[in-house]
From TrEMBL:
<comment type="subunit">
    <text>Monomer.</text>
</comment>
<comment type="function">
    <text>Catalyzes the transfer of the enolpyruvyl moiety of phosphoenolpyruvate (PEP) to the 5-hydroxyl of shikimate-3-phosphate (S3P) to produce enolpyruvyl shikimate-3-phosphate and inorganic phosphate.</text>
</comment>
<feature type="binding site">
    <location>
        <position position="342"/>
    </location>
    <ligand>
        <name>3-phosphoshikimate</name>
    </ligand>
</feature>
<dbReference type="InterPro" id="IPR036968">
    <property type="entry name" value="Enolpyruvate_Tfrase_sf"/>
</dbReference>
<dbReference type="Pfam" id="PF00275">
    <property type="entry name" value="EPSP_synthase"/>
</dbReference>
<feature type="binding site">
    <location>
        <position position="22"/>
    </location>
    <ligand>
        <name>3-phosphoshikimate</name>
    </ligand>
</feature>
<keyword id="KW-0057">Aromatic amino acid biosynthesis</keyword>
<dbReference type="GO" id="GO:0005737">
    <property type="term" value="C:cytoplasm"/>
</dbReference>
<feature type="domain" description="Enolpyruvate transferase">
    <location>
        <begin position="11"/>
        <end position="423"/>
    </location>
</feature>
<feature type="binding site">
    <location>
        <position position="23"/>
    </location>
    <ligand>
        <name>3-phosphoshikimate</name>
    </ligand>
</feature>
<dbReference type="InterPro" id="IPR006264">
    <property type="entry name" value="EPSP_synthase"/>
</dbReference>
<feature type="binding site">
    <location>
        <position position="22"/>
    </location>
    <ligand>
        <name>phosphoenolpyruvate</name>
    </ligand>
</feature>
<dbReference type="InterPro" id="IPR023193">
    <property type="entry name" value="EPSP_synthase_CS"/>
</dbReference>
<feature type="binding site">
    <location>
        <position position="169"/>
    </location>
    <ligand>
        <name>phosphoenolpyruvate</name>
    </ligand>
</feature>
<protein>
    <recommendedName>
        <fullName>3-phosphoshikimate 1-carboxyvinyltransferase</fullName>
        <ecNumber>2.5.1.19</ecNumber>
    </recommendedName>
</protein>
<feature type="binding site">
    <location>
        <position position="94"/>
    </location>
    <ligand>
        <name>phosphoenolpyruvate</name>
    </ligand>
</feature>
<feature type="binding site">
    <location>
        <position position="346"/>
    </location>
    <ligand>
        <name>phosphoenolpyruvate</name>
    </ligand>
</feature>
Length: 430
C-alpha cells in the first residue's frame, strides 16, 4: 500500500484539537486496572498501541470496555488478575511491553508475551534486569533480551535502581513493579524523563515521592478508580507545528494539548531556532498542565540539540531533523543514541528518508548533522513501518518540488488514526 501526498502551494491554517496523549492513555488503562472500582477515561487515544494495552488487561480477566474515545474499566484490583490463556501480543507498542512487564512482575502467574517484527527487535533487558532483581522470573529470545518472552511474577522485594538508560518506560516499569514489593522502591533518574506515571498515580489515590533525582514508591497501596480526561498529545501536535513553520502564510492554534514540562522540549527547541510560537496554560487535568499552542510560519536557524534536552524531544526528533533541513546554517543532534531502539533505528531512517528527498544529512553514532536550506525534491520513501517517520514524510510534502509517495502509510494508525484527514482539513490553497 502507498499514499501519494503533495501539499506544496498549501498553507496550514485554522484551529485543531489533536487526539489524546498516547503515554497518558496507556497509563490511565494500567492504573484503572490496578485500582478497585470504576474508572472512566475520556478522550482516550484509540490508536493501535493503546488498544494493545486494553487487550492485555482483558486477557487477564479485567472488565475493560472501549466505546470510541471513552474507556470504562471495572476492576477489583490487581489481586484478581487471572493467568492469560493465550499469548499476550503487544503489537508495535514498546510502552505496552515495558510497562506491562512491570505489572506482570508482581502477579504470581505465567504469561507468554510477543510483539510484531519491530518490537521483537527492541531491547527488553532494560526492564527484565531490574524486575529480576526484584524477584520476577523471565526468559526470552536472544538470551532473554527480546520478545517472545515469558514471565512468572510473584512477591517482589523493593530495590533502589539507577536508570542506566534515560527511559520513562524503564522508570515506569520499575515503579509499577514497586507497587507489588514489600517496602519502598526507589528509582534514580540522572536526567528527567516524562513523568506521567508519577503524576497519574496520584489521581488514583496513590502516593509517590520525588526528591531531586530520586523517585520513591511504597508497595501494596490501595488505588481507587476515578474519572479522568486525557489531554491532546503534544507529540501529535508537533506534526502540525512543524508543517506550519515550514509552509508560507501558515497560522494555526492547537487547543487542549498536554503541556507537561517533561514533554514541551519541542517548544523550547523551536523558540531557540527562532520559531514564532506562543504557549498558554489554561487549566490542569489532574496534575497535568493543559493549554493551547499558537504558531506561525517562521524562518529558522540551525542549533545544537543535546544532553538533558534529548528525553524532552525524543519522539519529535524526526520532525526537528526535517525542520533543520530548512533552517539557516547547520543543526547538530547528539546524545540521542536511544533513537536507535525505537520502532526503527530512527537515526538511520531519518537520514535515509531526508537524503532521499534531497537533503544533506550525515549520520553520527548518537545523532546526525543536518545542513540547512536544502531544496527537497520529493520521491518515494518508506515509512519503514514507523508511524512517526510516515507522518514526518507527509509533512515534508509541504515543501517538496514533487509529490512524496509514502510506502506503508498504514502504520500511522499506531498513534494517529485520522492523521491524513486532520492534515487535509488544516490545508488551504495559498
Ligand atoms: O513512557 C512512555 O510513554 C514513552 C517513553 C519514551 O520511550 P523511552 O522511555 O523508551 O525513551 C517514548 O519514546 C515513547 O513514545 C513513550
Ligand atoms: C517510541 C514510541 O513508542 P513506543 O516505544 O511505545 O513503541 C513512539 O511513539 O514514538
Amino acid at each position: 500500500m502507498k499514499k501519494t501526498i503533495h501539499l506544496k502551494d498549501m498553507a496550514l491554517k485554522g484551529d485543531i484539537k489533536v487526539p489524546g496523549d498516547k503515554s497518558m492513555s496507556h497509563r490511565a488503562v494500567i492504573f484503572g486496572a490496578l485500582s478497585t472500582g470504576k474508572t472512566v477515561i475520556h478522550d482516550f487515544l484509540s490508536g493501535e498501541d493503546c488498544l494493545r494495552t486494553i487487550k492485555a488487561f482483558q486477557q487477564m480477566g479485567v472488565d475493560v470496555h472501549q466505546d470510541g474515545q471513552t474507556v470504562t474499566i471495572d476492576s477489583k484490583g490487581a489481586h484478581y488478575f487471572t493467568e492469560p490463556h493465550d499469548t499476550i501480543h503487544f503489537g508495535n507498542s514498546g510502552t505496552t511491553a515495558r510497562l506491562l512487564l512491570g505489572v506482570l512482575a508482581g502477579r504470581p502467574f505465567h504469561s507468554v508475551l510477543t510483539g510484531d517484527d519491530s518490537l521483537s527487535k527492541r531491547p527488553m533487558d532494560r526492564v527484565t534486569m531490574p524486575i529480576q532483581q526484584m524477584g520476577a522470573r523471565t526468559d526470552g529470545r536472544s538470551n532473554g533480551r527480546q520478545l517472545p518472552m515469558s514471565i512468572r511474577g510473584g512477591t517482589l522485594s523493593p530495590i533502589e535502581y539507577e536508570l542506566p538508560v534515560n527511559s520513562a518506560q524503564v522508570k515506569s516499569a520499575v515503579l509499577l513493579a514497586g507497587l507489588f514489593a514489600n517496602g519502598i522502591t526507589t528509582v534514580i533518574e540522572p536526567i528527567p524523563t516524562r513523568d506521567h506515571t508519577e503524576r497519574m498515580i496520584k489521581a488514583f489515590g496513590g502516593k509517590i515521592d520525588r526528591l531531586n533525582h530520586r523517585i520513591s514508591i511504597n508497595g501494596h497501596q490501595s488505588l481507587q478508580g476515578t474519572e479522568l480526561s486525557i489531554p491532546g498529545d503534544i507529540s501529535s501536535a508537533s506534526f502540525y507545528i512543524a508543517g506550519t513553520l515550514l509552509a508560507e502564510h501558515s497560522d494555526i492554534t492547537i487547543a487542549e494539548v498536554g503541556l507537561n514540562p517533561t514533554r514541551t522540549g519541542i517548544i523550547d527547541v523551536l523558540e531557540e531556532m527562532g520559531a514564532d510560537i506562543q504557549v498558554e496554560t489554561t487549566k490542569y487535568i489532574g496534575d497535568e498542565p493543559v493549554g493551547s499552542i499558537h504558531v506561525q510560519s517562521s524562518n529558522l536557524k540551525g542549533i545544537t540539540i543535546s544532553g538533558n534536552m534529548i528525553p524532552r524531544v525524543i519522539d519529535e526528533i524526526p520532525l526537528l531533523a526535517l525542520l533543520a533541513t530548512q533552517a539557516e546554517g547547520e543543526t547538530l543532534i547528539k546524545d540521542a543514541k536511544e533513537l536507535r531502539f525505537k520502532e526503527t533505528d530512527r537515526i538511520k531512517t531519518i537520514v535515509q528518508v531526508l537524503n532521499t528527498l534531497g537533503a544533506n544529512v550525515i549520520e553520527l553514532e548518537d545523532g546526525m548533522k543536518i545542513k540547512g536550506r536544502a531544496k527537497l525534491q520529493g520521491g518515494t520513501v518508506s515509512s519503514y513501518g514507523d508511524h512517526r517517520i510516515g507522518m514526518m514524510e507527509a509533512i515534508a510534502s509541504l515543501i517538496t518540488n514533487e509529490a512524496v509517495e509514502i510506502e506503508n502509510p498504514n502504520c500511522i494508525s499506531i498513534s494517529y488514526p485520522n492523521f491524513f484527514e486532520d492534515l487535509q482539513n488544516l490545508s488551504r490553497p495559498l
